[in-house]
Amino acid sequence: MTDQTPVPAASTLETLDLGYAPAPEATDHVRIRDHYGLLIGGKWVDPASGKGFKTVNPATEVVLAEVAEAGEEDVDLAVKAARAAYDKLWSKTSGTQRAKYLFRVARVLQERAREFAVLETIDGGKPIKESRDVDLPLAAAHFFYYAGWADKLDYAFPGRSPRPLGVAAQVIPWNFPLLMAAWKLAPALAAGNTVVLKPAETTPLTALLLGQVLEQAELPPGVVNILTGAGATGAALVAHPDVDKVAFTGSTEVGKAIQRTLAGSGTRLTLELGGKAANIVFDDAPIDQAIEGIVNGIYFNQGHVCCAGSRLLVQESIAEPLIAKLKRRMATLRVGDPLDKNTDVGAINSRQQLDRIEELVASGEAEGAELYQSPCDLPARGFWFRPTVFTGVAQSHRIAQEEIFGPVLSVLTFRTPAEAVEKANNTPYGLSAGVWTDKGSRILDLASRLRAGVVWANTFNRFDPTSPFGGYKESGFGREGGLHGLAPYLDLS
Amino acid sequence: MATTPVRLAEAGDGFLRQIELGPILSRFAVDQVGVTERAAALAKRSIKKTSKVAALRLAVAVMDLTTLEGADTPGKVEALCAKARRPDPADPMVPPVAAACVYPTMVATAKTALAGSGVRVASVATAFPSGQSSLRVRLADVEDAVAAGADEIDMVINRGAFLSGRHREVFDEIVAVKGACGAAHLKVILETGELGTYDNVRRASVLAMAAGADFIKTSTGKVQPAATLPVALVMLEAIRDFHERTGRMVGFKPAGGVRSAKQAIQHLILVNETLGPDWLTPERYRIGASSLLNDCLMQLAKERTGRYQSADYFSKD
C-alpha cells in the first residue's frame, strides 16, 4: 500500500544556508541629467559665474552629474525672486490655496516615491530600505501634516494673529536630503513664507527633483527657489540682508558662525545642530529590543544622524551579556550595496566624512578604548566603514565627547539612575536621548531630568511630523515638527 | 504552616529564577512594539532567484505535514503520508517532508505508510489541544502514542497552571511527559495565543526548555493567533539565550497560520538571522502546516518553469 518510489536523499538539498541572492532595486525609472541649474523665480538657470561641481555616488565613486554652484549674484537673484513672489502673490494667497499646493506636493511625493528613494540612495549612499521606508514616507507625511495647518493658523495660536515673516533662507544637510527639505519647506510654506533652499553639496539631486515636483504641483514661480552650492553659497544666503528668517540644520561649528553673522540683524533664526545622544539601558530593560534600539540608534543611516544614540550607557550589572549580544547582532548587519533591498548599512556619504570618522576612531584606540568591528566584507570602491563599537570608554575620551557622525558607538557604564542622568547630561549637546527600562515611573522620571529635546522610551530614532524635534545647548534652538514647528515661521506678536 | 514560605517561593518567577538561569535568561521583559517592529523589518528581506528556490526546498524539508481532524481516517492519513514521502513526483529536487503529524490513534497507520522513507511520525498527545485532563490521562496518551511507534511527541503545556502562576507544576509535568517519551523527541506546545503577553511567551519558552523540551512549538493550530512572526521571534531569542547559557540547542516549530510559501520564507529568515544556519535543519527546525506544502510546490514549479500553474496540478490529500 505504501508508495515505494525512492525519495531524494537529503543531500539533494543544495544548501541549508540561506545566503541571500543579490536583490537590487531597479534604477531604470530614474533619470539623472548631466547638468543641473539653479531654480530661481520658476526658471532653471545657469549660475552667473558659470561654475559647477560634481556630485558622486559614494558607494561607487562614479560621478552622477554636474551641479551649478550658486554665487553671491545668484543668491541675490533668488532672494529677490522670493521677495517678489511673497509681495505680489504668496502673502495674498489664502491658507486654503496654500494647503492645496502642499497636499499636491505630498501626493506627488507618494506617487513618485520609488524614483525619489532610488535617487536618494544613489546620491547619498543610504540603504534603499531606509530611503524607501523612512525618508520618503516621512517627507510626504510632513507635507500632508503642514498642509492641514495652512488654513488653520488662527486656531493653531488662539488669541494671536499669526502673520508670515517673508523670505526664509533654509540650509539643509546631506544626511536626510529630501526629508530635511520637507521639514523645512512644509511649515514655511504653510505659514505663508517664500523660500530660498540650499541643499548640501554632496546630496543635491533629490532637492533638485523636488524642484521639478513643485513645478508639477504648479506652485507659483519664486515661492520656492533652490540654490545648489557649498559652504560659501550657504554663507552668502544666510547673510543676505533681505532674508527675514534663517533655518539651518547641520554642524554646530557652522551653526555658531551663522549665529554670529546674524547677531543684531533682527533676522529670526532656528538651528538644529549636532548631538551626542545617550542611549541608557537599565538592567530591567527588554534586552533583545534594547539591542535592536542600540543598533537602530547608531547604525541607522550609517550613524549620519544628528540624534544618533552614539553613547550607550548601560547599567554595569548587565553590561557584559548585553555587549556580547550586541556584538553578535552586529555580525548579522549586512553592509554593502545601498541599492540592495537586503542591505542594512550603506556607504559613508563622502570621502571627507570618512576621513573624519577614521580620525576619531584612531583617537579612540590611541586613548585606550577597546575596538570591535562587525566582521563584514566591504566593497572595493566607494566610501565604507564597518559598524564599530568601543567598550571601556571613559567620559573624558574624545569618542565620548565629540560627534563622530558615523557608525561608531561608544559604550560607557553606570551604576545608578542618578549616575546615568549625570553622564547623559554631561555633554555640550542636548538633542536626544533614549531610555530602556520595563519600569514606567523611571521613564517619566528620566524624561524630565534628561536635558535633551527628544527622549525616546524603549525605542530610538522614531520620527513623526506631529512631534516637535530640536535641541538644547550646542544642539541648537527652535523646534521642527508639530505646532512648535510652525511658530518659527510666524510673527505671533 | 511551614509550607507557606515554600509556596511563596514557588509562585511566579521566583521558581524560575531558582533554576539558575543567569543574568539574561531570568529576564522576561519583552517590549511588544519593539519585537513587532523587528519581526516586520525581517519580513521585508527580499529573497529571490536561487535563494528563493533553496528556501522553498528547505521549507518542504522541515515541514511537519499535519492532519489533526476529528474526521481523520486511515485512508486520509495514508494519503497524507504518500504526499509526505514524495511531495512532488514531477520534481526530483523536492525533498520529502520532515514528519507527518497525526493524532495518537493514527500513529500506527502513519508508521506503516512511512516505513523506510526517513519521514518521521509525530503524534500530538497530552489531551491535545486543550490539555484539560488529569496528568495520569495525559501521560497515558503519550505512552500510547510512543507504544504505537511515534518518533516525536507534540505535547501541550498546562496553560491553566501557567496562567495561575503555578510554574513548578507546569515544569514538573513537562519533566514527566519527557520521561514518558523515552527515546521519542519531545516538542512542547506553548499555545501562545492563550498566553496573552510576549513576557509570558518568553517565560514559558524558558520554562519548557529548562524542563527538557527538545523543541518548543508555538501553537496547536486550534487557537488564533498562532505562529505570528513576533511570537516566533520571541521564542527564537529565548532559544538563542538558552543555548548561550547551557550549550543545548533546542529546536523550534512554528505551527498554525503558516499557509503561504511567503510566510514560510519569512519564518526561515527569522531563524537565519536570530539563530543562524545551524538551526536550519529538520533536526532543529520544523514548520507545522497542512495547506502550506502545495503553495511551496506551486512556487517551486513557478521558479522552474517561469509560470504559475492551476491548483489542480497539485494533489490535494
Short description, anyone?
The complex is a heterodimer of chains A (493) and B (317). Chain A has 493 residues and is an alpha/beta fold.
Structure write-up:
The complex is a heterodimer of chains A (493) and B (317). Chain A has 493 residues and is an alpha/beta fold. Chain A has helices at 72-88, 95-111, 113-124, 128-149, 153-156, 177-190, 205-216, 231-239, 252-262, 287-299, 316-330, 351-366, 398-401, 417-425, 440-449; strands spanning 35-36, 38-40, 43-45, 52-57, 62-68, 163-164, 167-171, 194-198, 224-226, 245-249, 268-272, 278-281, 311-315, 370-373, 388-391, 408-414, 432-436, 454-457, 476-477, 490-491. Helices cover 38% and strands 17% of the residues of chain A. Helix content of chain B is 49%, strand content 10%. In chain B, α7 (107-113) links the parallel β2 (99-102) and β3. The longest helix of chain B is centred in the C-terminal third of the chain and has 18 residues, at 229-246. Mean pLDDT of chain B is 94; it is low at 1-9. At the A-B interface, α10 and α11 of A face α3, α4, α5, α6 and α13 of B.
